[in-house]
Amino acid sequence: MQTENSAKAKLERIAQQLRIVKATDFSYPDCEIAIEQLLGSINKTKGKIDNLESRSPQLREALLREVNSVAIHTTQILGIIVRSSSTRNAFEFYNPFLTICKKALDENCKLILSSEWDYTPFTFPQNLEELPNFVIIGLPASESDNTLVFPVAGHELGHSIWSKEGLQTKFQPDLYRRVLEVFVENRSKLDELFPEVANADLNADMFAQHLISISVSQALSYCMELYCDFVGLCIFGESFLRAFEYLIAPTLSGQRSNRYPENKNRAKIISETANKIGISIEGYDSNFKSDTQGKNKRENFLQDMADLGTNRTIDELFEVAKNHLAGRNIQSPNDQEVQKIKSSFERGIPYSAEAGLGSLVSAAWTYVENSKGSVNANLGREHQELVNDLVLKSAEIAEYAEYMR
Protein backbone atom coordinates (compact mmCIF):
# COMPACT_ATOMS: atom_id res chain seq x y z
CA MET A 1 0.00 0.00 0.00
CA GLN A 2 1.24 3.49 -0.87
CA THR A 3 2.22 5.33 2.33
CA GLU A 4 2.98 8.92 3.22
CA ASN A 5 6.71 8.15 3.29
CA SER A 6 6.74 6.45 -0.10
CA ALA A 7 4.64 9.24 -1.67
CA LYS A 8 6.98 11.89 -0.27
CA ALA A 9 10.00 9.88 -1.42
CA LYS A 10 8.58 9.88 -4.94
CA LEU A 11 8.16 13.64 -4.87
CA GLU A 12 11.61 14.17 -3.35
CA ARG A 13 13.27 12.21 -6.16
CA ILE A 14 11.59 14.50 -8.67
CA ALA A 15 12.65 17.54 -6.64
CA GLN A 16 16.21 16.21 -6.67
CA GLN A 17 16.12 16.01 -10.46
CA LEU A 18 14.79 19.55 -10.61
CA ARG A 19 17.70 20.78 -8.47
CA ILE A 20 20.20 18.91 -10.66
CA VAL A 21 18.76 20.42 -13.83
CA LYS A 22 18.67 23.87 -12.20
CA ALA A 23 22.46 23.70 -11.91
CA THR A 24 22.66 23.50 -15.72
CA ASP A 25 23.72 26.56 -17.66
CA PHE A 26 20.68 27.84 -19.50
CA SER A 27 20.85 30.44 -22.23
CA TYR A 28 17.83 32.27 -20.85
CA PRO A 29 16.56 32.79 -17.28
CA ASP A 30 12.97 31.65 -17.85
CA CYS A 31 14.00 27.99 -17.55
CA GLU A 32 15.47 28.57 -14.07
CA ILE A 33 12.33 30.46 -13.03
CA ALA A 34 10.20 27.56 -14.25
CA ILE A 35 12.23 25.07 -12.20
CA GLU A 36 11.86 27.20 -9.07
CA GLN A 37 8.09 27.30 -9.55
CA LEU A 38 7.96 23.54 -10.14
CA LEU A 39 9.92 23.00 -6.91
CA GLY A 40 7.36 25.14 -5.14
CA SER A 41 4.58 22.97 -6.57
CA ILE A 42 6.33 19.81 -5.34
CA ASN A 43 6.71 21.26 -1.82
CA LYS A 44 3.06 22.31 -1.80
CA THR A 45 2.01 18.77 -2.72
CA LYS A 46 4.25 17.33 0.01
CA GLY A 47 2.46 19.49 2.57
CA LYS A 48 -0.92 18.17 1.46
CA ILE A 49 -0.01 14.60 2.34
CA ASP A 50 1.19 15.27 5.89
CA ASN A 51 -0.50 12.79 8.29
CA LEU A 52 -1.81 10.86 5.29
CA GLU A 53 -2.68 7.74 7.34
CA SER A 54 -5.06 9.75 9.51
CA ARG A 55 -7.22 10.79 6.54
CA SER A 56 -10.35 9.02 5.35
CA PRO A 57 -9.79 6.28 2.74
CA GLN A 58 -11.46 8.40 0.05
CA LEU A 59 -9.34 11.48 0.79
CA ARG A 60 -6.18 9.38 1.06
CA GLU A 61 -6.81 7.89 -2.36
CA ALA A 62 -7.52 11.33 -3.86
CA LEU A 63 -4.27 12.75 -2.43
CA LEU A 64 -2.23 9.79 -3.70
CA ARG A 65 -3.76 10.29 -7.14
CA GLU A 66 -2.72 13.93 -6.97
CA VAL A 67 0.85 12.90 -6.09
CA ASN A 68 0.99 10.68 -9.17
CA SER A 69 -0.53 13.41 -11.34
CA VAL A 70 2.04 15.95 -10.11
CA ALA A 71 4.84 13.43 -10.66
CA ILE A 72 3.79 12.73 -14.25
CA HIS A 73 3.17 16.37 -15.10
CA THR A 74 6.37 17.69 -13.53
CA THR A 75 8.52 15.02 -15.15
CA GLN A 76 7.03 15.85 -18.54
CA ILE A 77 7.71 19.57 -18.15
CA LEU A 78 11.20 18.92 -16.78
CA GLY A 79 12.00 16.90 -19.90
CA ILE A 80 10.90 19.84 -22.04
CA ILE A 81 13.08 22.21 -20.03
CA VAL A 82 16.10 19.91 -20.37
CA ARG A 83 15.64 19.67 -24.14
CA SER A 84 15.28 23.45 -24.38
CA SER A 85 19.05 23.64 -23.83
CA SER A 86 19.75 21.34 -26.79
CA THR A 87 22.03 22.78 -29.44
CA ARG A 88 19.39 21.73 -31.99
CA ASN A 89 17.37 24.79 -31.04
CA ALA A 90 17.58 28.09 -32.86
CA PHE A 91 18.61 30.17 -29.84
CA GLU A 92 18.90 33.32 -31.96
CA PHE A 93 15.13 33.27 -32.41
CA TYR A 94 14.38 33.11 -28.69
CA ASN A 95 14.50 36.81 -27.78
CA PRO A 96 12.74 38.07 -30.93
CA PHE A 97 9.96 35.55 -30.44
CA LEU A 98 9.75 36.30 -26.71
CA THR A 99 9.22 39.95 -27.66
CA ILE A 100 6.34 38.89 -29.91
CA CYS A 101 4.87 36.77 -27.09
CA LYS A 102 5.07 39.65 -24.62
CA LYS A 103 3.32 41.96 -27.06
CA ALA A 104 0.66 39.41 -27.91
CA LEU A 105 -0.02 38.43 -24.28
CA ASP A 106 1.54 40.65 -21.60
CA GLU A 107 4.90 41.77 -20.25
CA ASN A 108 4.90 39.05 -17.59
CA CYS A 109 4.91 36.35 -20.26
CA LYS A 110 7.75 33.85 -20.11
CA LEU A 111 8.84 31.47 -22.84
CA ILE A 112 10.36 28.02 -23.16
CA LEU A 113 11.29 26.82 -26.65
CA SER A 114 12.20 23.16 -26.87
CA SER A 115 13.05 20.41 -29.32
CA GLU A 116 10.78 17.41 -28.95
CA TRP A 117 10.81 13.80 -30.10
CA ASP A 118 7.35 14.28 -31.53
CA TYR A 119 6.91 15.33 -35.14
CA THR A 120 3.80 17.37 -34.39
CA PRO A 121 4.57 20.78 -32.81
CA PHE A 122 2.76 21.32 -29.52
CA THR A 123 2.23 23.91 -26.83
CA PHE A 124 1.13 24.39 -23.24
CA PRO A 125 -0.85 27.62 -23.81
CA GLN A 126 -0.39 29.40 -20.47
CA ASN A 127 -2.80 26.98 -18.80
CA LEU A 128 -0.47 25.19 -16.38
CA GLU A 129 -1.34 25.74 -12.73
CA GLU A 130 2.36 25.43 -11.83
CA LEU A 131 3.55 27.81 -14.59
CA PRO A 132 0.64 30.16 -15.33
CA ASN A 133 2.64 32.82 -17.19
CA PHE A 134 4.63 30.44 -19.39
CA VAL A 135 4.25 29.75 -23.08
CA ILE A 136 5.89 26.36 -23.68
CA ILE A 137 6.42 25.35 -27.30
CA GLY A 138 7.99 22.16 -28.62
CA LEU A 139 9.17 21.84 -32.22
CA PRO A 140 10.14 18.52 -33.85
CA ALA A 141 13.71 17.63 -32.87
CA SER A 142 14.52 16.77 -36.48
CA GLU A 143 13.47 20.29 -37.54
CA SER A 144 14.17 22.46 -34.50
CA ASP A 145 17.40 23.78 -36.06
CA ASN A 146 15.60 24.45 -39.34
CA THR A 147 14.67 28.13 -39.31
CA LEU A 148 12.33 27.60 -42.25
CA VAL A 149 9.80 25.71 -40.10
CA PHE A 150 9.91 28.08 -37.14
CA PRO A 151 6.76 29.96 -38.28
CA VAL A 152 4.62 27.09 -36.92
CA ALA A 153 5.55 28.50 -33.49
CA GLY A 154 3.21 31.35 -34.43
CA HIS A 155 0.33 28.88 -34.56
CA GLU A 156 1.30 27.54 -31.14
CA LEU A 157 1.38 31.08 -29.72
CA GLY A 158 -2.14 31.44 -31.06
CA HIS A 159 -3.33 28.86 -28.54
CA SER A 160 -2.13 31.07 -25.68
CA ILE A 161 -3.90 34.11 -27.14
CA TRP A 162 -7.09 32.09 -27.64
CA SER A 163 -6.99 30.98 -24.02
CA LYS A 164 -5.99 34.32 -22.49
CA GLU A 165 -8.57 36.31 -24.45
CA GLY A 166 -11.36 33.86 -23.61
CA LEU A 167 -12.19 33.42 -27.28
CA GLN A 168 -14.02 30.14 -26.82
CA THR A 169 -16.58 31.96 -24.70
CA LYS A 170 -16.69 34.79 -27.25
CA PHE A 171 -17.32 32.58 -30.27
CA GLN A 172 -19.54 29.90 -28.71
CA PRO A 173 -22.95 31.70 -28.89
CA ASP A 174 -22.65 32.61 -32.58
CA LEU A 175 -21.16 29.23 -33.39
CA TYR A 176 -24.11 27.51 -31.71
CA ARG A 177 -26.49 29.59 -33.79
CA ARG A 178 -24.63 28.79 -37.02
CA VAL A 179 -24.46 25.07 -36.29
CA LEU A 180 -28.18 25.06 -35.48
CA GLU A 181 -28.80 26.78 -38.83
CA VAL A 182 -26.98 24.05 -40.77
CA PHE A 183 -28.83 21.35 -38.82
CA VAL A 184 -32.09 22.96 -39.94
CA GLU A 185 -30.85 23.27 -43.53
CA ASN A 186 -29.91 19.57 -43.52
CA ARG A 187 -32.98 18.41 -41.64
CA SER A 188 -33.92 15.62 -44.06
CA LYS A 189 -30.47 14.04 -43.73
CA LEU A 190 -30.60 14.49 -39.95
CA ASP A 191 -33.96 12.71 -39.71
CA GLU A 192 -32.74 9.92 -41.98
CA LEU A 193 -29.64 9.22 -39.86
CA PHE A 194 -31.25 9.99 -36.50
CA PRO A 195 -34.89 8.87 -36.65
CA GLU A 196 -35.01 9.52 -32.89
CA VAL A 197 -35.33 13.25 -33.64
CA ALA A 198 -37.54 13.06 -36.71
CA ASN A 199 -40.00 15.98 -36.60
CA ALA A 200 -38.70 16.99 -33.16
CA ASP A 201 -38.19 20.63 -32.15
CA LEU A 202 -34.42 21.02 -32.39
CA ASN A 203 -34.49 23.80 -29.79
CA ALA A 204 -36.32 21.70 -27.21
CA ASP A 205 -35.63 18.03 -27.80
CA MET A 206 -32.91 16.82 -25.42
CA PHE A 207 -31.38 14.30 -27.84
CA ALA A 208 -31.36 16.84 -30.66
CA GLN A 209 -29.65 19.33 -28.33
CA HIS A 210 -27.09 16.64 -27.47
CA LEU A 211 -26.29 16.10 -31.16
CA ILE A 212 -25.99 19.84 -31.79
CA SER A 213 -23.70 20.20 -28.77
CA ILE A 214 -21.37 17.55 -30.21
CA SER A 215 -21.05 19.48 -33.47
CA VAL A 216 -20.65 22.79 -31.64
CA SER A 217 -17.85 21.31 -29.51
CA GLN A 218 -16.07 20.04 -32.62
CA ALA A 219 -16.61 23.35 -34.40
CA LEU A 220 -15.08 25.24 -31.47
CA SER A 221 -12.00 23.03 -31.75
CA TYR A 222 -11.80 23.64 -35.52
CA CYS A 223 -12.23 27.38 -35.00
CA MET A 224 -9.44 27.42 -32.42
CA GLU A 225 -7.05 25.68 -34.82
CA LEU A 226 -7.94 28.03 -37.68
CA TYR A 227 -7.61 31.07 -35.42
CA CYS A 228 -4.12 29.87 -34.49
CA ASP A 229 -3.33 29.37 -38.18
CA PHE A 230 -4.37 32.97 -38.79
CA VAL A 231 -2.13 34.17 -35.95
CA GLY A 232 0.79 32.32 -37.54
CA LEU A 233 -0.15 33.76 -40.94
CA CYS A 234 -0.33 37.35 -39.67
CA ILE A 235 3.00 37.11 -37.84
CA PHE A 236 5.00 35.16 -40.43
CA GLY A 237 3.21 35.80 -43.70
CA GLU A 238 4.05 33.52 -46.62
CA SER A 239 6.61 31.64 -44.57
CA PHE A 240 3.82 30.27 -42.37
CA LEU A 241 2.09 28.73 -45.39
CA ARG A 242 5.39 27.25 -46.59
CA ALA A 243 6.25 25.83 -43.16
CA PHE A 244 2.75 24.42 -42.70
CA GLU A 245 2.95 22.71 -46.09
CA TYR A 246 6.44 21.38 -45.38
CA LEU A 247 5.37 19.74 -42.12
CA ILE A 248 1.84 18.61 -42.96
CA ALA A 249 1.42 17.99 -46.71
CA PRO A 250 0.03 15.82 -48.12
CA THR A 251 -1.31 14.61 -44.74
CA LEU A 252 0.00 13.27 -41.45
CA SER A 253 -2.41 10.47 -40.65
CA GLY A 254 -5.04 10.62 -43.34
CA GLN A 255 -7.77 9.76 -40.80
CA ARG A 256 -10.16 12.59 -39.95
CA SER A 257 -9.88 13.80 -36.36
CA ASN A 258 -12.65 15.43 -34.31
CA ARG A 259 -10.11 17.98 -33.07
CA TYR A 260 -8.87 19.43 -36.36
CA PRO A 261 -10.41 20.88 -39.51
CA GLU A 262 -10.33 18.54 -42.48
CA ASN A 263 -6.79 18.65 -43.86
CA LYS A 264 -7.31 19.78 -47.46
CA ASN A 265 -10.12 22.16 -46.57
CA ARG A 266 -7.92 23.67 -43.85
CA ALA A 267 -5.17 24.34 -46.40
CA LYS A 268 -7.74 25.90 -48.74
CA ILE A 269 -9.04 28.16 -45.96
CA ILE A 270 -5.52 29.31 -45.01
CA SER A 271 -4.65 29.96 -48.66
CA GLU A 272 -7.82 31.92 -49.39
CA THR A 273 -7.36 33.96 -46.22
CA ALA A 274 -3.75 34.67 -47.19
CA ASN A 275 -5.03 36.12 -50.47
CA LYS A 276 -6.82 38.80 -48.44
CA ILE A 277 -3.47 40.15 -47.26
CA GLY A 278 -1.78 39.88 -50.65
CA ILE A 279 -0.17 36.44 -50.30
CA SER A 280 -0.82 34.05 -53.16
CA ILE A 281 0.70 30.62 -53.70
CA GLU A 282 -0.76 29.04 -56.83
CA GLY A 283 -2.28 25.62 -56.28
CA TYR A 284 -1.41 25.63 -52.60
CA ASP A 285 -4.21 23.36 -51.36
CA SER A 286 -3.62 20.93 -54.25
CA ASN A 287 -0.51 19.78 -52.38
CA PHE A 288 -2.71 18.45 -49.57
CA LYS A 289 -4.77 15.29 -49.47
CA SER A 290 -8.26 15.08 -48.00
CA ASP A 291 -8.66 13.21 -44.74
CA THR A 292 -10.76 10.08 -44.88
CA GLN A 293 -13.87 9.92 -42.70
CA GLY A 294 -14.81 6.88 -40.68
CA LYS A 295 -17.49 4.34 -41.60
CA ASN A 296 -19.97 5.67 -39.04
CA LYS A 297 -22.37 7.83 -41.06
CA ARG A 298 -23.83 9.42 -37.95
CA GLU A 299 -20.44 10.63 -36.71
CA ASN A 300 -19.54 11.82 -40.21
CA PHE A 301 -22.74 13.86 -40.38
CA LEU A 302 -21.95 15.58 -37.08
CA GLN A 303 -18.46 16.40 -38.38
CA ASP A 304 -19.97 17.81 -41.55
CA MET A 305 -22.28 20.05 -39.53
CA ALA A 306 -19.29 21.25 -37.48
CA ASP A 307 -17.43 22.03 -40.72
CA LEU A 308 -20.33 24.02 -42.13
CA GLY A 309 -20.73 26.00 -38.93
CA THR A 310 -16.99 26.68 -38.87
CA ASN A 311 -16.98 27.84 -42.49
CA ARG A 312 -19.47 30.57 -41.58
CA THR A 313 -17.12 31.82 -38.86
CA ILE A 314 -13.85 32.03 -40.81
CA ASP A 315 -13.97 35.74 -41.68
CA GLU A 316 -14.68 36.67 -38.06
CA LEU A 317 -11.86 34.43 -36.82
CA PHE A 318 -9.39 36.11 -39.16
CA GLU A 319 -10.51 39.63 -38.26
CA VAL A 320 -10.19 38.92 -34.54
CA ALA A 321 -6.70 37.46 -35.00
CA LYS A 322 -5.53 40.26 -37.29
CA ASN A 323 -6.95 43.05 -35.11
CA HIS A 324 -5.51 41.58 -31.91
CA LEU A 325 -1.99 41.47 -33.34
CA ALA A 326 -2.24 44.89 -35.02
CA GLY A 327 -3.53 46.36 -31.77
CA ARG A 328 -0.43 44.98 -30.03
CA ASN A 329 1.87 46.48 -32.69
CA ILE A 330 2.82 43.10 -34.15
CA GLN A 331 3.37 43.72 -37.83
CA SER A 332 3.04 41.29 -40.72
CA PRO A 333 6.10 40.84 -42.96
CA ASN A 334 6.81 43.81 -45.20
CA ASP A 335 7.15 42.92 -48.91
CA GLN A 336 9.82 45.53 -49.58
CA GLU A 337 11.81 44.41 -46.55
CA VAL A 338 11.49 40.77 -47.61
CA GLN A 339 12.92 41.58 -51.05
CA LYS A 340 15.84 43.52 -49.55
CA ILE A 341 16.64 40.63 -47.21
CA LYS A 342 16.42 38.13 -50.07
CA SER A 343 18.86 40.22 -52.08
CA SER A 344 21.34 40.02 -49.21
CA PHE A 345 20.89 36.25 -48.97
CA GLU A 346 21.47 35.90 -52.70
CA ARG A 347 24.82 37.61 -52.20
CA GLY A 348 25.60 35.17 -49.39
CA ILE A 349 25.57 37.81 -46.63
CA PRO A 350 23.27 38.41 -43.65
CA TYR A 351 20.85 41.31 -43.74
CA SER A 352 22.59 44.23 -42.11
CA ALA A 353 19.60 46.21 -40.83
CA GLU A 354 16.88 45.65 -38.25
CA ALA A 355 14.18 43.30 -39.53
CA GLY A 356 11.20 41.41 -38.17
CA LEU A 357 11.29 37.68 -37.61
CA GLY A 358 8.49 37.12 -40.12
CA SER A 359 10.29 39.07 -42.82
CA LEU A 360 13.55 37.17 -42.25
CA VAL A 361 11.97 33.73 -42.58
CA SER A 362 9.75 34.79 -45.49
CA ALA A 363 12.84 36.06 -47.30
CA ALA A 364 14.58 32.76 -46.62
CA TRP A 365 11.67 30.80 -48.09
CA THR A 366 11.51 33.09 -51.13
CA TYR A 367 15.25 32.61 -51.62
CA VAL A 368 14.94 28.82 -51.36
CA GLU A 369 11.91 28.64 -53.67
CA ASN A 370 13.66 30.78 -56.30
CA SER A 371 16.82 28.70 -55.98
CA LYS A 372 14.92 25.58 -57.02
CA GLY A 373 14.81 26.95 -60.54
CA SER A 374 18.53 27.66 -60.70
CA VAL A 375 20.72 25.19 -62.58
CA ASN A 376 23.59 25.76 -60.16
CA ALA A 377 21.49 25.63 -56.99
CA ASN A 378 22.71 23.17 -54.37
CA LEU A 379 19.68 22.39 -52.24
CA GLY A 380 21.35 19.70 -50.18
CA ARG A 381 22.33 19.84 -46.53
CA GLU A 382 25.10 22.36 -47.19
CA HIS A 383 22.67 24.77 -48.82
CA GLN A 384 20.18 24.39 -45.95
CA GLU A 385 22.89 25.17 -43.43
CA LEU A 386 23.86 28.28 -45.40
CA VAL A 387 20.26 29.51 -45.37
CA ASN A 388 20.00 28.82 -41.65
CA ASP A 389 23.23 30.67 -40.93
CA LEU A 390 22.13 33.68 -42.95
CA VAL A 391 18.77 33.86 -41.15
CA LEU A 392 20.23 33.35 -37.68
CA LYS A 393 22.99 35.91 -38.19
CA SER A 394 20.43 38.37 -39.51
CA ALA A 395 18.28 37.77 -36.41
CA GLU A 396 21.29 38.53 -34.21
CA ILE A 397 21.96 41.75 -36.12
CA ALA A 398 18.29 42.78 -35.83
CA GLU A 399 18.29 42.07 -32.09
CA TYR A 400 21.45 44.12 -31.59
CA ALA A 401 20.04 46.98 -33.66
CA GLU A 402 16.88 47.01 -31.54
CA TYR A 403 18.98 46.89 -28.35
CA MET A 404 21.02 49.91 -29.49
CA ARG A 405 17.96 52.02 -30.31
Describe this structure in words.
The chain has 405 residues and is mostly helical. Strands 1-3-2 form a 3-stranded mixed beta sheet, with helices on both faces. It has helices spanning 4-22, 30-48, 57-83, 94-104, 152-164, 167-185, 187-193, 206-236, 238-248, 263-276, 297-311, 314-327, 335-346, 357-371, 381-404, and strands spanning 110-116, 122-125, 134-140. Strand 2 (122-125) and strand 3 form a beta hairpin. Residues 373-378 have low confidence and may be disordered. Helix 2 runs antiparallel to helix 3 and helix 6 (167-185) packs across helix 11 (297-311). The protein is built from 15 helices and 3 strands. 62% of the residues lie in helices and 4% in strands.
What's this, in brief?
With 405 residues, this protein is mostly helical. Helices cover 62% and strands 4% of the residues.
Radius of gyration computed on alpha carbons: 24 Å
Discrete helix count: 15
Specify the helix fraction band. Answer: 55-70%
Q: What form results from the Cα inertia axes? A: flat
Ends apart, CA distance between termini? 63 Å
Structural class: mainly alpha
Number of strands: 3
Q: What are the low-pLDDT stretches, counting only 5+ consecutive residues below 50? A: 373-378
Strand order of the largest sheet: 1-3-2
Give the integer mean of the pLDDT values: 89
What is the helix/strand order? HHHHEEEHHHHHHHHHHH
The portion of residues forming beta strands comes to under 5%
Q: Describe the biggest sheet?
A: 3 strands, mixed
